Input
Amino acid sequence: MSELLAIFGPNDSDSELIGEIERLHPSRVTVLLDGVEGDWACDEGPTGEALRSRMAGLLALIERRTGATVTGLACRREQLRGWRFDREVTGRQPVPA
Output
């Protein structure tokens, strides 16, 4: 079983990150949404709505293209304290966790 942390930033190329996730064949993926305001889930404005739509699409796309189970979505690394990942994927390159 392979545990992957996928870190998406506000300006990252989603398609490149999805491709990298797919290449690694993880069993489970947790998504960290890095660099956005903490109230995005409650933001009723166009920015919050666009971000929620992006995240919903990304989570579904990860599951569909990789067959992995998406275990959750975090907005701060502190929320993942105690979690263990085999790999991390960012907008740059995968690194050992």
About this structure: The CA atoms of residues 71 and 79 lie 13 Å apart. The chain has one domain: 3-91.
